[in-house]
Structure formats: C-alpha cells, structure tokens
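ok trying this again, last paste got cut off
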Amino acid sequence: MKNRVLYFAAIFLLAMFVSCEKEPENVGTSRNGYVTFFNESSYIVEVHATAFSGPVIATLASGESKKCEIPESDNHGVGTTFSIGYKTRVFSEPDLSCGDVYAYGIDPDMQITVNIEAEKNHFLRISQPSNLVFETAFLRVINSSENYFELKKNSMSFKQTGNGNLTVDAGKIGIYEIDSSSGGKKFQGYELRSAFKSIDFPEFDVEYNHTYTYIFDGTSVTKDSEQVLSY
C-alpha cells in the first residue's frame, strides 16, 4: 500500500511539473512560469523536481538548453527547488550485450532555488559539479562459453544495465549495476544459469565506484579484475 501511495504521488508531481518546450494558448490565464535550463557542464544532467528523489522534469546533454513550464512558486517567496543529477557513460566496448551504460551521481550542493512567477521567463545555468559523488558499482561478466547465460538469485533473473535484457549471448559481455556501499556490501547467493546448468557465482564485497570483472567459461566463474571507476 505504501509503495502504491508513493507511486501515485510521484506521478502527480511529474504531471504538475513536466511541460517542456510548450506554452499554453491562453497565456493570460496561466499561473505557470517558464524556466530555461542550460547545461554548461560536461555531463548529461537530469533536473529533478524538488529533491534528488523527485521526478525528472528535464534531461539535457552537455551544452543543451530546454524550456519548461513550471507552476508558480506558492510558498511565501521561498521559491521552487530543483535538484541536479549527473550522468556519464562508463562502458563503450563493442562486445557489450547491453548497450551504453551510465553511472549516475549527485553534487549535494547542486540544488537550485528560484522564485517562479506566473507568465514570466527564468533562466537557470547548470554548472560543472565541484563535489560529484557516484554511489554506483558494476558487475562485468565476460561470456567465453558457447552458450548464453542469465544472472539469477533465488530463481529470479536480473536484467542487464543499459537495455534490460536477461540473456548474455556467447562471446558477449554483460554489465549489471549492483548494490554497493562505502565499506563494501556483500554480493552473495547469485548464480549463472546456462543451458540447463547453474554455476554458483563467487561471493565478494562491492564498494562504490568499482567495476568487478568475471569470466564465465561454461563450467566455472572466475574473477578477472577489479577496477576503480574514473569519471
């Protein structure tokens, strides 16, 4: 029940906020203002309504601008807050099974507040972050076997980051975003399922900003490398 309430609340916020590159026909009766976001950073940015957990109201490539219709601020002059998230591509290998993979990070200082006035235009510049924090980690599995595989836990299959596909074909590389922490979160209870055979995945600790590479040869899963991601 709680999840349903949160879901419909997010949909309501999104409906309230999102209306980019569009102005109403009867401007005189509108109680909305217009905000043009300009991304001067080198990252892809996502503009969230209110908090970082709020719905995304605009996504901008580096150097892109976008004009959005936003409800006027109605909080005694405090203003409307936008939180900025940053995305960057972290894998671009030709044998990836999942397509492009992006890491998402935030700069806790990148929350912009502006007093939105009805029927007026506002301009917000999104600058390069100075304190960017990525709390992501990835599992990279090279399939050197002759069959496909799926990553599973307790009979549940996991989707690859990027395209959401379940299977990784022979000769391809699967990428998964996995739970992590600053001190290391245990990755355990997983297996690779391939051609009616299940192979237990080795347990390991997952830290922020790391990529863990393993090789599946059809009969075993072995660790190949561990790297710290550089953004």
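PB: full thing came through this time. Confidence is low (pLDDT under 50) at residues 1-9, 24-28.
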